[in-house]
Amino acid sequence: MDDMMFRSDTVLSDVHLHTPSKRHFMVRLNAVGQPVFLSQFKLLLDKSNRNSGKEERDFRGENLRCQHKRGEVLSVDDSIEDEDSSSSIEKEGNCLKGIEALLDEDGDLEVVRKPQLPYTEDEDLSRDKVYPIILTKGGDILEEQEEEEDSCCDVIKIEHTMATSLEDVGKQVWRGAFLLADFILCKQDLFKDCTVLELGGGTGIVSVIVAKAAKTTYCTDIGEDLLDMCERNIALNKHLIEPAGNKVKVRVLDWLKDDFCTDPENSYSWSEKEIAELHDLTTVILAADVFYDDDLTDAFFKTLYRITSNLGNPCAVYLSIEKRFNFTLRHMDVVCEAYSHFRSTLNDLLNIRDGKTRYTIEPVQLSFPQHIVYERVEQLELWKITAERTTPPTPRGLE
Ligand SMILES: C[S@@+](CC[C@H](N)C(=O)[O-])C[C@H]1O[C@@H](n2cnc3c(N)ncnc32)[C@H](O)[C@@H]1O
After folding, report:
1. Do residues 179 and 280 lie in contact, with contact meaning Cβ atoms separated by under 8 Å?
2. Beta-carbon neighbour count of residue 118 at 10 Å?
3. DSSP assignment letter at 166
4. Which of 14, 62, 20, 60 is nearest to 40 (CA)?
5. How far apart are CA 156 and CA 150, in angstroms?
6. Nearest to 276 by CA among 298, 260, 297
7. How far apart are CA 313 and CA 388, in angstroms?
8. Helix, strand, or coil here: 81?
9. Are 208 and 157 in contact (CB under 8 A)?
10. Distance (Å) from CA 12 to ligand 1 centroid
11. Domains of the chain: residue spans and CATH
């Protein structure tokens, strides 16, 4: 295998920065030879959010204790086998005591460092290269995972890559996805039985979460390899989606193109029926962390306008974004250009006077509780756009 190279355009999501666990390190190589990892994220759901008797385990505490199988923030325990509710509660109690013991008097986490071994002069200080080990290859992991007992409704499994180039960022999970997923978990009623369209869905994590409640979710993105990964993630999490009779359809939707792809050669293309149903039934559109390049932001809003102005129903659009600050020589200052462009393009919606659709925008307060462990940094924001038609849509085929 080639050395893993960090090029100037390599990006690594904070979500993947933690130490991998032994059990779920690297699971396969994808079609373009990138190492693929499997992470498991634990959701804290209250009883009203659960949908099968098996998963009726009692969780206590106001915050989620998440288990990121590769990189735990606060580990509950290292196995998620079925367990009865009493031992679950007991473990949670022990876990909380353990967490408290790690906090100093101000509540800051005290990191216990591994003691340094004394260095002897004849020791060789050069470090051997360590290559990741492929535990299983190809499709094996899917079958293996399907057989595992731990397919309970509070664990979401996501395959992803790490440290990608900018064009492959969708293969990582981004913090904005957690924020949006968190909001959805808190407001399940807003999504119940809806038809939802996710734009730039990446690994599919947000679509999986919304599909717990929504009847039909179209998870869209570009690139066959990414869409394959997304499709696998939907399959890995069918225990969260199918019990309620819901479904996720992975489809290609490129903001740089004016039309839906209906090419039968493309495995992720749309049927005419799906396009019609999307326009007739969609009431929610989602996008997490897709505003990092001004041209793409413009293309995104153009697509959003094209779709919302042809919908048969009013639509709520939820967009999460993380402000990323950079020092630029041009400004000789720390600026957040992608965010500024996002805000100005968002405001442009208010000025649209096409006589067809009216848009309103509002920030969503982030006061809802956390259901996934991630750092809800102050740079995270969630925006809601409401799109309402002022005239009935033109019958299809006459646009
Ligand atoms: C930073 S990632 C976010 C992925 C996912 N929403 C998340 O938060 O984990 C940005 C996403 O936008 C998608 N994207 C970029 N250009 C696109 C385009 N022209 N059309 C559709 N999606 C695009 C990428 O493939 C990627 O999945």
Report:
1. no
2. 6
3. G
4. 20
5. 10
6. 260
7. 7
8. coil
9. no
10. 14
11. 166-389 (3.40.50.150)
What is the CB neighbour count within 10 angstroms for residue 361? 15
Supply 281's token pair.
């039934």
Cβ of 180 less than 6 Å from ligand 1: no
State whether the Cα torsion 234-240-241-242 is positive or negative: positive
- CA distance linking residue 388 with residue 354, whole number of Å: 12
Round to whole Å and give the CA distance between 257 and 302: 10
- Ligand 1 centre and the CA of 365: distance in Å? 24
Nearest-CA residue for atom 13 of ligand 1:
200
Which ligand 1 atom minimizes the distance to the CA of 299? 19
Which sign, positive or negative, has the C-alpha torsion 85, 88, 94, 98? Answer: negative
**Element housing 327 (H / E):** strand 326-328
Tell me the pLDDT of the chain (399 aa) as tens digits. 444 555 567 888 888 876 455 455 688 888 888 889 998 888 887 655 554 333 333 332 323 333 333 333 322 223 333 333 344 434 444 444 444 555 666 666 665 555 444 444 444 444 444 444 444 444 444 444 444 545 567 899 999 998 788 889 999 999 999 999 999 999 999 999 999 999 999 999 999 999 999 999 999 999 999 999 999 999 999 999 999 999 999 999 999 999 999 999 999 999 999 999 999 999 999 999 999 999 999 999 999 999 999 999 999 999 999 998 777 777 777 778 899 999 999 999 999 988 889 999 999 999 999 999 888 999 999 999 999 988 876 666 545
> Residues, the chain, total?
399
Question: How far away, in angstroms, is 289 Cα from ligand 1 center?
Answer: 8
Question: Is 170 touching ligand 1 by the criterion CB < 6 Å?
Answer: yes
Indicate whether residue 291 lines ligand 1 (CB < 6 A). no
Q: DSSP strand E in 111-229: where?
A: 155-160, 164-165, 195-198, 216-221
Ligand 1 touching residue 158 (CB < 6 A) = no
Q: Report the C-alpha gap between 181 and 64 in whole angstroms.
A: 13
Å from CA of 388 to ligand 1 middle:
26
The Cβ of residue 48 has, within 10 Å, a number of other Cβ atoms equal to: 8
392 CB-near residues (< 8 Å, 6+ apart): none
- Residue 165 CB neighbours (<10 A): 13
3-state secondary structure of 383: strand
